[in-house]
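Entry type: protein chain
Record version: 2
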Amino acid sequence: MLPVITQRVEGRRVSIYNERHLAKHPLLGFYLKNTTGLHLLQGPITVFDDSTYAGEAKIGDIQRGEERLLSYAVDLGTEVEPQAKRQPDRLVAVRVQRGVLYATNKVREEKTYVIRNRSEQDRVVLIEHPYRGPDFKLIAPEKPLERARDVYRFEVTVPKGETKKLEVIEERDVVSTVALSNADDQTIRIFLQSPITSQKVKDALSEIVQRKHRLAQLQQELTQTQAELKILVDDQARLRANMQALPPSSETYKRYLKKLDEQEPLIDKYQERIKALQQDILKQRQALDNYLVNLNLD
């Protein structure tokens, strides 16, 4: 036994565009509202337009008063061209927590749907735009016609022969991190020069730059001192190698011996300076690390 419904039901014609389903044309559709007072079972539907066969559709169960969107054929008289655009990211917040800088950028994505109605009838086009979760905030239009599980639906009326546009703008916040202990001066200066960065954070970043600059100077001096010590040590090795081939009574041997004696105090001096620089560098690094760990600023 098959149930037969002879009552009228409410509904309206629409064209349904979803770029992921069909890139160029929308589908002819129908917004069906179950006003029969009965529970309609799932199954196939045959659609007639002015007594002319128009297409096939399939629906699930429809409760009393429930609405369901059906599509049954391709709307060849209407074309939709989606045009995507992404604006440059905008820095909107900077904070520092335990030596890590958190930069929040506002990402703005825009998509314009250009709808051309080349048919002889006016069209009501439902644009289905992907819903990508709460991270993406809808900016424009202010409110969709409705939101399904995975799409927004926007309604655009397009008179015959005309072209209309729908612009959908969404924004989301993207947080990136910068470890200040490893960040170069150029990266830090970007945030120092930003009007978004608070004065407290700028002061802390300036202090970090100064401390790292002092560390770099100490490291440079250490490298230079080690290089000069190596020159002396290499020269002593050369002199001792040459002295092995000379008699101790020769003038050259005595000159080499005098030079070795003169170099010894210099070697001691360089070694003491290297040890002091290494201790100073260690102390400065520990101070910087402690400063960063205790830094919590918005």
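Comment: The chain is about 30% helix and 40% strand.
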